[in-house]
Amino acid sequence: MTRYSAFNLLREGLRDHTGWGKAWRSPAPKSSYDAVIIGAGGHGLATAYYLAKNHGLTNVAVLEKGWLGGGNTGRNTTVIRSNYFYPESAALYDLSVRLYENLSRDLNYNVMFSQRGMVVTAHSDPEMEMAARQVNAMRLNGVDAELLDRDQVRKLAPLLNFRPDMRAPIHGGVLQPRAGTGRHDAVAWGYARAADALGVDIIQNCEVQDFIMEAGRCVGVHTSQGDIRAGVVGAAVAGHSSVIAKMAGYDLPITSYALQAFVSEPLKPVLDTVVLCPPFGTYVSQSDKGGLVIGGGLDRIPSYGQRGNLPVQETVLAGLVEMMPALASVKLLRHWAGIVDVTPDSSPIIGPSGVDGLYLNCGWGTGGFKAIPAGGYLFAHILATGSHHEISRPFDRSRFVTGHLIDEGAASGIAH
User: Which of 65, 154, 276, 316 has the fewest beta carbons closer than 10 A?
Assistant: First the structure.
């Protein structure tokens, strides 16, 4: 991998950056591949990378109807955490955190993973009891966790509202020190560059219009750039998973919602951790550029829209002002939405679709960004071997038939 000295960086700046090579190719699609992945977001690109790196499958195409990373990967609040309750979820999301911890080195690309920690506040004695159970569950599952009292929360996030007459006074909270934030674009770009270097074709502006079926098996896709045959097809299209399912003729227990987020004007450093206050349905962190990145719950009207709306804005920002009154006069710069695919148990679906030759990586709901490395790692294993990794097995879609649900609604109901 090429490394640039300070002199080279200066030279490129002086010549208007005309000497840089492209980070990845823009090839024309071949007529066939060993594997085709639909969706060049974080999960699709990570899957391609791990197929090549871990399984030696380099005759792989990633198809994207728009531009690379233009969906939810570029439309989220970038929080990375594994503070989940059930063992299955803890194993999945902590695999992702561990992969994130070494991802910049692995990809030779700075994804800006900042392990600044995340605190979830508790606002009553019963909530403190549940916080203690959460900490115990996390520790039993091998995930770092600390139970904080009120003074410890104040030391960690002094900007919070600690007035005794607050509507929901803070009693304490749960801290995951290894949690943090990353740079969403950098994650997509890093995986794209690394996958391309291993021989993967990333084909943008290539819309999948239908599936090629032979004897009941999916053997490729019809696209806007022609037919492409494949040994195996994987779909990682987030909020449009139900659209792909309808195209292929199977059903998914998924509903798509708009998840809205906000960025404020740049401020001097005021918050060096991620904070979620459940009673107000709002969470916030501060980016490296100084802007506050703010999010809240889902807009519970099914939608494929990627624009925000004023009712959700009012709800989320009212929560922020009650959490941190000092921020009441801060101005917003941007407001947007991503499309998230939510399952009945708020856990993802990874594995066979029910159509032979077609596999799924979907249903991440509000947790897709934090799970990109693990989602790609596990999905690559399934596509390469035809069978589950032990961590992905509980998330097979068959759980909706057997009733073995992994109900993480409490952990993922607030989008973060």
Answer: 154
